[in-house]
Amino acid sequence: MANNQEALYNIRDFRFTYPESNHTIAWQGNHLIREGERILLTGASGSGKSTLLYGLMGLIPEILYGKVDGDIYFRGKSIIENPEFVKGRAGLILQNPSAQILCHSVREELAYGLENKKIAPGKILEEIDEWANKFGISPLLNQRTSSLSGGEKQKITLLSILMTKPEILMLDEPTAFLDPISAKEIMEIIEKYDSGKTMLFVEHNLGYLKGQITRNLDLDITGKVNNRSAEEIIWHTPLPFLEKTAKGRMLMQLENIRFSYPEKDILKGVNLKIYEAEIIGIKGRNGSGKSTLLQIMAGLKRKYGGDILLDENAYKGKEYKYLNSIVGLLFQDPENHFLFHKVEKELEGCDLQFIGDEFEGKKNQSPFTLSEGEKRRLSTAISYQGNKKLLFLDEPTFGQDINNKRKLISFLGKLRDRGLGIVIVSHDEEFLKVVCGSVYELKEGKLQVVEQ
Amino acid sequence: MIEIKKGINDLILFGLTFAYTIAVLVSPTWQLCIYWIILSLFQLVIVRRLNWKLISIFMLFLLIPGISLFITSYLHLKGNMSSYPVIFAGIELDHYRLTMSLYLAIRAAALSLVSFSFLTAIHYEKLIYSLIQNLRFPVIWGYALLVAFNSAGNIQSEFKRIQQAAVMRFSHKPLFYFYIIPLLVSATRYSQQAAMSIQSRGLNQDKSFIKSEKLRVFDLLILLINLTGIIIPLLYLIRQSS
């Protein structure tokens, strides 16, 4: 049946090399994307899934410079030569909701795509009201985009693109930054929008896509493309459980921690005990205060109520340097931790025995050019240096494929076995389940036990 | 319904910033500089764009360099043949040096105050839309500027995270130099994604706008009144001096 459908795209032996990179991203052979198909793009980190989406959007080589071979045709016309042909006809949602927001107000953001099509302002405003009612975003219309949460920003960007009625919608890990509820809402909008629309998904959380995909294109790192039917997709690959071990002595205790931002009380009495050789998980919605809590625990925010006890002694605000010295904090974006232009320099002071020989051949490489998994492991090693007693990780599985998650689990197991008390903040519920001894949910400013 | 624009067009306010700055620069007396300050602030009061709190704080800060400039100018200026002594609070002062120092201090203060009050009154996004709609400013540049303004908060929080990561690593804040590489990488990635977002949604120079920032007769009238208020006193002074 699919063969009878009109081809929207024809990818012909497409290859792209980023400037100053030794690795060429390749799509060997000819591949058709037909109207009405819902394709899942999979492949290891660095295999070129996102790059292909950029190519299909006509952003190569105009926005993304590099060496291009082969071609991509949209409705029979080369978009490598004529990128303008596809502009406004295909929609792309990226991972980071903040970087896609262009306008000051939600209404202007929603109007942006239609304005580009030179539709009359009155008609645009009518459409905005209609769509806002349909998708339940009317209360947001008069807000400033900067005041929106990550989930709301992603919803607005998605609707802004859908309103232009693109011939194909491409989604590059649209749920990566979102909590499960926001992620579900995004997927519901897509479902509600048009079930017959051509779509291309790059997504690690396959659970959200079950029942929506018609075909899977799996990209090998060598450029070989495996074409699979929806039935052949492995929707869920279980993560290995980390064997639980006995806890040691108590390292840190939070007593009635309270914290407010000018507009909102975010923590309203958080209590928690962290022991040696223990991994604790904390989940919660975007904006619930998880990252703020980690920053307080790491001594980076000092104007809070309540007490932090270290080794059963109350930690005083003035001793924050001591707290900084015994706590490692890993941010969501591993690149926040890189300060030097060579891996070798970053590794100075790290426990090389612990890291093994993973970075042996990459010592002279820039840390920013490593794969996502390598970046994550390098940043974890950096956070751990100096023999820390506690390690706090903020969304460690962000942007990680299943193999990298497995490596991360074993990495965290090694750290825990060294006696470290570890706290992980994550939206990845499965990861928390297999790694943590106990999982809490931060809800309405308090920690509630989910699993113990 | 299309939103009807209220108040003065930001492009006019932007133009007036230059007009008043030039007026201060060419003013030969301190009294005229004060006249420009009053006139420009009055302007912003009328269009309800004056941020009183911010301007008051700025004026307080301005006092320090203003007084310093006045004192140093008075001490370093040479007297004039036609000058005469003035007694102020029991101290004998040179009239010429006094008026010249006062002129220099008030002129510098007027320059800062006029530009600051106008620039804090301008809504940057409206200014960009106005530039695009009235002066055919390229939309690609306009949206790039909008993204740059919107990203300020993001870059700030990114900088904070990098700084915090460094503090946790070294137990002290390293020199700013260390943050440059990660900050640049982050800014580059952000701008690349923003560029993709701008382009992929079909950016078009010939586009419509739900918010009209077209210049109206009212805006041109305001511009005309202001220019008259600036040019007439200047012409009068030039004529008097010649």
Give the topology, please.
The complex is a heterodimer of chains A (452) and B (242).
Chain A (H helix, E strand, L loop, with lengths): L6 E11 L6 E11 L3 E6 L5 H8 L10 E8 L2 E2 L11 E4 L3 H4 L5 H11 L4 H15 L14 H13 L5 E5 L7 H14 L4 E5 L12 E5 L5 E5 L20 E12 L2 E12 L2 E6 L6 H8 L7 E6 L2 E3 L4 H7 E4 L12 H4 L5 H4 L16 H13 L5 E5 L7 H16 L3 E5 L3 H7 L2 E6 L2 E6 L1
Parallel strand pairs in A: 3-8, 3-9, 6-7, 7-8, 13-18, 13-19, 16-17, 17-18
Antiparallel strand pairs in A: 1-2, 1-4, 4-5, 9-10, 11-12, 11-14, 14-15, 19-20
Helix pairs in contact in A: 3-4, 3-5, 5-6, 11-12
Chain B lengths: L9 H17 L3 H17 L5 H25 L8 E4 L2 E4 H27 L2 H12 L3 H32 L9 H21 L16 H25 L1
Antiparallel strand pairs in B: 1-2
Description of the molecule:
The complex is a heterodimer of chains A (452) and B (242). By secondary structure, chain A is α/β, with parallel strands linked by helices. Chain A has 2 domains: 7-232, P-loop containing nucleotide triphosphate hydrolases (Rossmann fold, 3-Layer(aba) Sandwich), CATH 3.40.50; 250-451, P-loop containing nucleotide triphosphate hydrolases (Rossmann fold, 3-Layer(aba) Sandwich), CATH 3.40.50. Chain A has 13 helices and 20 strands. Chain A has helices at 49-56, 97-100, 106-116, 121-135, 150-162, 180-193, 290-297, 320-326, 343-346, 352-355, 372-384, 402-417, 429-435; strands at residues 7-17, 24-34, 38-43, 67-74, 77-78, 90-93, 168-172, 198-202, 215-219, 225-229, 250-261, 264-275, 278-283, 305-310, 313-315, 327-330, 390-394, 421-425, 438-443, 446-451. In chain A, helix 6 links the parallel strand 7 and strand 8. Chain B is mostly helical and 242 residues long. Chain B has 2 domains: 10-123 and 215-241, no CATH class; 139-200, no CATH class. Chain B contains 8 helices and 2 strands, in the order αααββααααα. In chain B, a hairpin with a 2-residue loop joins strand 1 and strand 2 (91-94). Chain B is flat. The N and C termini of chain B lie far apart (57 Å).
